[in-house]
Design a protein that fits this description.
By secondary structure, the protein is an alpha/beta fold. The protein has 14 helices and 18 strands. Strand 2 and strand 3 form a beta hairpin. The protein is globular and about 80 Å long.
Length: 527
């Protein structure tokens, strides 16, 4: 086995171990053996056949900081079920190869580190992963073909969703899909963008190719990979049965549903004749996307209940959950946002001291920044994500109850019965949206909703955001989607993207200018 010359590795107590000795340590050998064993298991599952797929695991050593631990990685172009521990590559945390396998005689190819290496390193760097699995499992390939134009895979109300980090049975699991390329390493930028755009995801699908899954340990990565493949297989089989896996009740898939609502609204102008004549009606929208504040829910609830609750409890929440992975992720996101705010001179932004300054000092600075963000009503992911976690505690403690207008439950039930797929698009996080509709004054309304969009798809006042939603839903024409909002700028942006638009007129909403050009309703019963 060839080993490159590398600096000595420091361990606890100031003692140092020579590089070669550490490369041959028990921790490294155990990780090499583990990858060999896992690859044989994954081969039998159909994940790494034909030399495809790969796996990498960080060497767990309590004496070395996590971000400095060495990485063991399977080679490329090797029969995975026949790999031996000595076939593995050993890399530093920055991707430098420290140890390579020795060449084997014909017909074996010369050893080569996994083509997935740049993608694995992104997951290690951006998510502090402990292991990453790349599978070519048939389910992970076929599921990306069910809707060739969709940029996401979505599924809800399946037991195995509970096996995915940060998700429960009632949650909607969303996995981003990136487009395949001729060479694996060319996927690196797309994977990094997907990881950044979907802070909750632990996987990225590659269309017509496979999936990358990571976890904080090899057990977490393996468990989640098994759950993802199960869910993909379930979606494929449900599709074959004509059932919709992305809705709570998994109703029959609605291909085309022609009807006219109480208002006679359609996705194109109806040709009206005399009063007693028939209307010539085109298909109504297949999808309905709803705003929350001022549309399904009074503005006063958001402004006078939710925002103050988050503002008054941010310090308590951070103190109680400071050491959890979830809160540390929130803090990391806030640090990044505040640094950007400071560079841009945003009013209210104050520096956040480093972790070694102490928990109380860090929390104090975080509270000051969050309060300034809330007072400015900023629509930024860092704030919305933290608010969602604070509100979750409020709902769990029965200190909060979601509020919707009286006409909303009946309308949701009607649209659901008619086969319409209803989504929410709000500047609040997906978690915050699920909390509101899962804990309303009319009970849990999530059974009528097919999914949730937040600002990770883009700003609500930009047309590109609605194009992203259209692509995610996989519609042939954007006009198959009806968007209902109370904000004129959002209506204009959605219309520019080709969606049908209705403006909601509710008590407390901002008055619209004359000649705005949009249809308006005062109740969902008019839609």
């Amino acid at each position: 086995m060839a080993a490159a010359a590398v600096p000595a590795v420091s361990v606890n107590g100031g003692m140092k171990v020579s590089s070669q000795a550490y490369l041959e340590s028990k921790a490294v050998k155990d990780t090499r053996n583990l990858i060999s064993e896992l690859c044989r298991q994954f081969y039998n599952l159909g994940w790494v056949g034909g030399t495809g797929g790969s796996i990498t695991i960080k060497v767990h050593d309590d004496s070395i900081p996590r971000n400095q631990q060495l990485i063991v990685m399977s080679p490329s172009g090797v029969q995975k079920e026949r790999m031996e521990p000595e076939d593995m590559y050993l890399l530093s945390e920055n991707g430098s190869i420290l140890s390579s396998p020795s060449p084997k005689p014909y017909p074996h190819k010369r050893p080569k580190c996994s083509d997935c290496a740049p993608l694995f390193l992104k997951a290690y760097d951006m998510r502090n992963a402990g292991a990453v699995i790349h599978s070519h499992g048939m389910e992970s390939c076929l599921v990306t073909m069910l809707n060739p134009s969709s940029k996401e895979f979505r599924i809800t109300h399946m037991e195995m969703i509970k096996g995915i980090q940060g998700h429960g049975y009632y949650d909607e699991l969303v996995v981003p899909i990136i487009e395949n390329t001729a060479y694996e390493n060319e996927l690196t930028d797309s994977l990094a963008k997907a990881i950044e755009a979907y802070p909750k995801t632990t996987a990225v699908l590659v269309r017509n190719h496979g999936i990358y899954v990571w976890g904080d340990s090899w057990i977490s990565a393996k468990t989640q990979a098994e759950c993802y493949h199960y869910l993909f297989d379930a979606a494929i089989k449900l599709q074959q049965l004509g059932l919709d896996w992305s809705t709570p009740s998994h109703d029959p898939i609605q291909h085309i549903n022609r009807f006219v609502g109480r208002s006679g609204f359609t996705n194109a102008s109806a040709k009206a004749g005399p009063k007693d004549s028939n209307y010539e009606v085109e298909p109504s929208p297949r999808f309905i996307v709803l705003d929350i504040e001022g549309t399904t829910t009074p503005i006063s609830f958001v402004a006078d209940v939710l925002f103050p609750y988050a503002q008054h409890n941010v310090g308590r929440h951070l103190s109680a959950t400071y050491d959890t992975t979830e809160t540390q992720d929130d803090i990391k996101l806030l640090r990044s946002q505040v640094q950007d705010d400071l560079e841009k001179g945003v009013n209210g932004a104050v520096p956040i001291p480093p972790d070694h300054a102490g928990k109380e000092e860090v929390i104090g600075a975080l509270v000051a920044n969050v309060e300034a963000m809330i007072n400015a009503d900023r629509k930024i992911t860092a704030l919305k994500q933290l608010q969602g976690h604070i509100w979750r505690t409020g709902y769990e403690n029965n200190e909060l109850e979601g509020v919707v207008f009286d006409d909303v439950p009946e309308a949701l039930e009607k649209w659901h019965a008619l086969g319409k797929k209803v989504y929410i698009y709000s500047s609040g996080s997906r978690l915050a949206q699920r909390l509101i509709f899962g804990n309303t004054n009319y009970g849990d309304l999530r059974k009528y909703l097919s999914g949730f969009f937040d600002t990770t798809v883009g700003n609500k006042k930009e047309a590109r955001s609605y194009i992203e939603i259209s692509e995610s839903l996989g519609v042939d024409k954007p006009s198959e989607i009806l968007f209902v909002t109370d904000v004129l700028q959002e209506a204009v942006a959605a219309k520019a993207a080709g969606l049908e638009v209705i403006i909601s007129i509710r008590p407390g909403n901002v008055l619209l200018p004359e000649n705005h050009g949009f249809k308006t309703v005062k109740s969902f019963s008019e839609i």
